[in-house]
Amino acid sequence: MTSETTATLALPQTPLAQGVLALTLRVESPAVANHSIRSFVFAKLFAEHIQAKSGADYDPDLLFAACVLHDIGLSEAGNRNHRFEVDGADKAAEFLTEQGLGAAAVDSVWEAIALHTSQHIADRRGTLCMLTKNGISLDFGKDTEFISDEVGAAVHAQYPRHSMATSLVDIIVEQATARPDKAPPFSPAFALLLERKIGQRTLLEQAADHGRWGN
């Protein structure tokens, strides 16, 4: 592994980042946790690709928090009464506030998590939202041409996929079935629930199937 690849895989070591990682590993399944961590690695790569500078254009700790906590609404710790993106944003905000993060920073992470499934909106809500959404999209294998085979292989050796898309859909559908208010009409959860009800492999799973990394 080259030094460049090793640097790509490196995660922030600040107390805040370590707390975020510990929470994620404690409450999320391996499939969801690995997806969340890979999303951060891919978000860093995307930032380099568009020449966004860490510490100048975005705060690496906030990007780590937004990416690594973006699906915490799919854990029991974050499973409440709203759509999973909002529940996850609320849980992340509470945790980050407990860690001493200021209100403006907490709000920026809340927004990035709440909007991470909102195509065309997240890209217009600032660098943090844009990088978070694109890091997540890259983990579905979309528009990854700028990522080398070596880096892609190293990321997945470190953080295996574990049928990521299917695992995500399973949890989203289970939550929505138990609490219908978590799948309001036109939300991603609503669409996934309908697709599963008719026995279809969901569009989210198909996107992963046909993406560069697979499911």
The total beta strand count reads 0
Coarse structural class: mainly alpha
Task: Give the low-confidence spans.
Answer: none
How many H/I helices?
11
- Major sheet: size, sense and barrel closure? none
Tags for this entry?
215 residues, mainly alpha, Hypothetical protein af1432, 11 helices, 61% helix, globular
3D architecture notes:
The structure is a single chain. It contains 11 helices and no strands. It has a domain at 12-160: Hypothetical protein af1432 (Orthogonal Bundle), CATH 1.10.3210. The chain has 215 residues and is mostly helical. Helix 5 packs antiparallel against helix 6. The chain starts with a helix and ends in a 5-residue tail after the last helix. The protein has helices spanning 3-9, 15-27, 30-49, 60-68, 84-98, 103-114, 127-139, 149-158, 164-178, 188-197, 203-210. The mean pLDDT is 96. Helix content is 61%, strand content 0%. The radius of gyration is 16 Å and the shape is globular.
